[in-house]
Design brief:
146 residues; alpha/beta; Nucleotidyltransferase, domain 5; five-stranded mixed β-sheet; 4 helices
Protein backbone atom coordinates (compact mmCIF):
# COMPACT_ATOMS: atom_id res chain seq x y z
CA UNK A 1 0.00 0.00 0.00
CA UNK A 2 2.92 2.32 0.67
CA UNK A 3 4.22 1.94 -2.88
CA UNK A 4 0.87 2.82 -4.33
CA UNK A 5 0.68 5.87 -2.11
CA UNK A 6 4.17 6.89 -3.17
CA UNK A 7 3.27 6.60 -6.82
CA UNK A 8 0.06 8.57 -6.30
CA UNK A 9 1.97 11.41 -4.69
CA UNK A 10 4.42 11.54 -7.53
CA UNK A 11 7.38 10.05 -5.74
CA UNK A 12 7.42 12.44 -2.80
CA UNK A 13 6.70 9.76 -0.29
CA UNK A 14 10.08 8.25 -1.04
CA UNK A 15 11.78 11.49 0.07
CA UNK A 16 12.80 12.60 -3.45
CA UNK A 17 12.52 16.23 -4.54
CA UNK A 18 11.33 16.28 -8.15
CA UNK A 19 10.63 20.05 -8.27
CA UNK A 20 13.32 22.23 -9.82
CA UNK A 21 13.77 25.72 -8.42
CA UNK A 22 13.37 28.61 -10.86
CA UNK A 23 16.09 31.25 -10.36
CA UNK A 24 14.80 33.71 -12.98
CA UNK A 25 13.16 37.00 -12.02
CA UNK A 26 9.68 37.58 -13.40
CA UNK A 27 9.88 41.04 -15.07
CA UNK A 28 6.31 41.12 -16.36
CA UNK A 29 4.91 43.07 -13.35
CA UNK A 30 7.82 45.51 -13.60
CA UNK A 31 7.09 46.14 -17.29
CA UNK A 32 3.38 46.58 -16.53
CA UNK A 33 4.14 49.21 -13.88
CA UNK A 34 6.51 51.06 -16.21
CA UNK A 35 3.93 51.15 -19.02
CA UNK A 36 1.26 52.50 -16.67
CA UNK A 37 3.65 55.22 -15.46
CA UNK A 38 4.53 56.09 -19.04
CA UNK A 39 0.85 56.52 -19.92
CA UNK A 40 0.25 58.66 -16.82
CA UNK A 41 3.15 60.98 -17.69
CA UNK A 42 2.07 61.21 -21.33
CA UNK A 43 -1.39 62.33 -20.26
CA UNK A 44 -0.23 64.65 -17.46
CA UNK A 45 2.60 66.43 -19.34
CA UNK A 46 0.38 68.56 -21.63
CA UNK A 47 -1.73 69.58 -18.64
CA UNK A 48 1.33 70.95 -16.83
CA UNK A 49 2.00 73.68 -19.37
CA UNK A 50 1.09 77.24 -18.44
CA UNK A 51 -0.90 79.29 -20.92
CA UNK A 52 -1.19 83.07 -20.78
CA UNK A 53 -4.45 84.45 -22.14
CA UNK A 54 -2.86 86.83 -24.66
CA UNK A 55 -2.59 86.27 -28.39
CA UNK A 56 1.03 86.95 -29.32
CA UNK A 57 1.89 86.29 -32.96
CA UNK A 58 5.39 85.02 -33.61
CA UNK A 59 7.58 87.21 -35.76
CA UNK A 60 8.39 84.47 -38.27
CA UNK A 61 4.82 83.57 -39.26
CA UNK A 62 2.29 85.23 -41.48
CA UNK A 63 0.24 87.78 -39.53
CA UNK A 64 -3.39 86.96 -38.90
CA UNK A 65 -5.93 89.01 -40.85
CA UNK A 66 -7.09 92.18 -39.17
CA UNK A 67 -10.71 93.26 -38.98
CA UNK A 68 -11.96 96.09 -41.19
CA UNK A 69 -12.01 98.61 -38.35
CA UNK A 70 -9.46 97.47 -35.71
CA UNK A 71 -9.41 99.21 -32.35
CA UNK A 72 -5.87 100.23 -31.41
CA UNK A 73 -4.86 101.21 -27.89
CA UNK A 74 -1.42 102.83 -27.88
CA UNK A 75 0.87 103.51 -24.92
CA UNK A 76 3.23 106.33 -25.83
CA UNK A 77 6.75 106.89 -24.38
CA UNK A 78 5.38 109.53 -21.98
CA UNK A 79 2.89 106.85 -20.75
CA UNK A 80 -0.12 108.63 -22.24
CA UNK A 81 -2.80 106.35 -23.68
CA UNK A 82 -4.46 106.78 -27.05
CA UNK A 83 -7.48 105.01 -28.53
CA UNK A 84 -7.11 105.14 -32.27
CA UNK A 85 -5.43 108.49 -32.92
CA UNK A 86 -6.97 110.36 -29.96
CA UNK A 87 -4.95 110.75 -26.76
CA UNK A 88 -7.23 110.25 -23.76
CA UNK A 89 -7.04 110.21 -19.98
CA UNK A 90 -6.72 106.74 -18.43
CA UNK A 91 -9.92 107.12 -16.42
CA UNK A 92 -11.93 107.61 -19.65
CA UNK A 93 -10.47 104.49 -21.33
CA UNK A 94 -13.51 102.32 -20.61
CA UNK A 95 -16.06 104.77 -21.99
CA UNK A 96 -13.92 105.53 -25.06
CA UNK A 97 -13.48 101.81 -25.82
CA UNK A 98 -17.21 101.20 -25.37
CA UNK A 99 -17.97 103.86 -27.97
CA UNK A 100 -15.25 102.58 -30.34
CA UNK A 101 -16.45 98.95 -30.14
CA UNK A 102 -20.17 99.83 -29.92
CA UNK A 103 -20.36 98.01 -26.58
CA UNK A 104 -19.04 94.68 -27.93
CA UNK A 105 -16.80 93.39 -25.14
CA UNK A 106 -15.73 90.33 -27.17
CA UNK A 107 -14.06 92.42 -29.87
CA UNK A 108 -10.27 92.09 -30.12
CA UNK A 109 -8.29 95.10 -28.89
CA UNK A 110 -4.88 95.65 -30.51
CA UNK A 111 -2.42 96.94 -27.90
CA UNK A 112 0.80 98.57 -29.02
CA UNK A 113 3.46 100.31 -26.97
CA UNK A 114 6.70 102.14 -27.54
CA UNK A 115 9.99 100.34 -26.76
CA UNK A 116 10.64 102.83 -23.97
CA UNK A 117 7.50 101.76 -22.07
CA UNK A 118 8.33 99.38 -19.21
CA UNK A 119 6.66 96.02 -18.79
CA UNK A 120 4.93 97.16 -15.60
CA UNK A 121 3.34 100.16 -17.34
CA UNK A 122 2.15 97.94 -20.20
CA UNK A 123 0.63 95.48 -17.71
CA UNK A 124 -1.15 98.37 -16.00
CA UNK A 125 -2.89 99.27 -19.27
CA UNK A 126 -3.69 95.58 -19.86
CA UNK A 127 -5.27 95.43 -16.39
CA UNK A 128 -7.37 98.50 -17.25
CA UNK A 129 -8.56 96.71 -20.39
CA UNK A 130 -9.33 93.53 -18.46
CA UNK A 131 -11.21 95.44 -15.76
CA UNK A 132 -13.24 97.13 -18.50
CA UNK A 133 -14.29 93.66 -19.73
CA UNK A 134 -12.10 93.42 -22.84
CA UNK A 135 -10.41 90.02 -22.59
CA UNK A 136 -9.29 89.57 -26.19
CA UNK A 137 -6.06 91.56 -26.37
CA UNK A 138 -3.52 91.24 -29.18
CA UNK A 139 -0.05 92.71 -28.80
CA UNK A 140 1.17 94.52 -31.92
CA UNK A 141 4.81 94.50 -32.99
CA UNK A 142 6.89 95.16 -36.04
CA UNK A 143 7.21 92.43 -38.64
CA UNK A 144 10.67 90.97 -38.06
CA UNK A 145 10.68 88.67 -41.09
CA UNK A 146 13.33 89.34 -43.73
Amino acid sequence: MGAKLGQALGGRARGGDDLVENHEINVTPFIDVMLVLLIIFMVAAPLATVDLGVDLPASAVEPSPRPDQPVFVTVKPDLSVAVGEDVIARDTLTSRLDSATHGKKDERIFLRADKAVSYGDLMEVMNLLRNAGYLKIALVGLDGRS
